[in-house]
Specification:
Keywords: Signal. Residues 40-63 have a biased composition (Low complexity). Residues 1-24 form the signal peptide. Residues 28-39 have a biased composition (Basic and acidic residues). Residues 24-73 are annotated as: Disordered. The chain is α+β, with helices and mostly antiparallel strands. It has 4 domains: 2-84, no CATH class; 87-168, Immunoglobulins (Immunoglobulin-like, Sandwich); 171-256, Immunoglobulin-like, CATH 2.60.40; 259-334, Immunoglobulins (Immunoglobulin-like). 15% of the residues lie in helices and 47% in strands. The strands form 6 sheets. Strands 3-2-5-6 form a 4-stranded antiparallel sheet, with no helix packed on it. A hairpin with a 5-residue loop joins strand 2 and strand 3 (121-127). Helix 1 (2-25) runs antiparallel to helix 4 (74-84). It starts with a helix and ends with a strand.
């Protein structure tokens, strides 16, 4: 069908060019006046005058045309219409060079290669179809594909006819979990992860994914990533560098040396918690790491030595305690000691 279309197009162009070819064949002969003058000059021993270089072009030019400057004709308009018409572009992606075509979860964006006034590449097309089909005028473009947090970019030249492009992401996946030393499970609502690009310091790293829940599968470009695991929201933090391989799922469990603790102010051991208490916990260095008001607050603390202050009214009660990795623990502060 494409070949027949081009044959038809050539036929149309030939028909459009025919009148102009006929006009060229019927163009007037150069005027004999110049030759006659030249002959007379030679007979008299004089140098014959040179004819203007543009005489022939001027003689052939149509009224209103500028010699030597192409003009728009029905034929040139037809050619431009054929070469600028949107063409089909088919886009697909693989995780690895020899992997299967990705069936879903892709986002395609196509950009012009020319920057706009702000220095940005203008987006000319977008598709959420894994096997995307777009229509683009012939020309050069930048194609970007995202699969989760994995992404790739490449250029494509769109030509008249069918255009196919298959991108290779070189991606893998990461699934994270955490636990307290001794394989003590951590409640899902108390743990989350941040994923950064690899680097030797925080200044060298870029945030890739934030607040990732445990057991979520995160798709990433192959490479090394710096993972931060948070247990609670105080100071129980563990870091690790993990490698993601193309086409593979990397699973990792990060272990915390920390524990959940709950606080209560009581008049006797094992007694009922007293309400309306202002709580403060300080580290061994004197840094305030936790503050809350209530009868039975709870938090998570990294392994170490701490002091808890319980203020009720004008009276402040305190107690030193130690956090060791293990099961949740209750810390009682007795009023009867004071």
């Amino acid at each position: 069908m494409a070949r027949n279309s081009w044959v038809m197009a050539i036929g149309v162009l030939a028909a459009l060019f025919a009148p102009q070819l006929a006009a060229a064949q019927e163009a007037p002969e150069p005027r004999p006046r110049a030759e006659h003058d030249a002959a007379q000059a030679r007979a008299a021993g004089e140098t014959p005058p040179e004819a203007p270089a543009d005489d022939a072009a001027s003689a052939l030019a149509e009224p209103g045309e500028v010699p030597g400057v192409p003009t728009e004709t029905p034929a040139t308009s037809a050619i431009e219409a054929v070469t600028q018409a949107p063409q089909p572009v088919h886009l697909k992606a693989r995780v690895t060079d020899k992997g299967d075509i990705i069936p879903s979860g892709l986002v395609w964006r196509v950009f012009d290669t020319r920057a706009d006034n702000n220095g940005q590449l203008a987006m000319v097309a977008k598709s959420d179809d894994a096997d995307a089909t777009l229509s683009l005028p012939p020309g050069q473009y930048v194609v970007h594909v995202a699969y989760g947090r994995a992404q790739a970019s490449d250029t494509i030249t769109v030509n008249p006819g069918e255009n196919d492009k298959t991108m290779v992401l070189e991606a893998g996946a990461l699934r994270l979990n955490s636990a307290v030393t001794g394989d003590i499970a951590i409640p899902v609502n108390l743990e989350h992860f941040d994923i950064f690009s690899g680097g030797t310091s925080d200044a060298d790293r870029t945030l890739v994914a934030q607040n990732v829940a445990p057991n979520d599968t995160v798709t990433l470009n192959a490479g090394t990533y710096h993972v931060v695991s948070y247990f609670g929201d105080v100071n129980a933090v563990v870091r690790a560098d993990l490698r993601v391989e193309p086409g593979q799922l990397t699973e990792a469990t990060l272990y915390h040396r920390a524990s959940q603790i709950s606080l209560k102010l009581v008049s006797e051991a094992g007694g009922e918690a007293i309400a309306d208490v202002d709580w403060t916990i300080k580290s061994s260095a004197g840094e305030t790491v936790f503050q809350e008001t209530g009868a039975f607050p709870a938090t998570v603390l990294q392994e170490g030595d701490y002091t808890v202050l319980a203020k009720r009214g004008d009276t402040v009660y305190n107690r030193a305690f130690q956090v060791v990795p293990g099961q949740p623990r209750e810390i009682e502060v007795l009023t009867s000691v004071y």
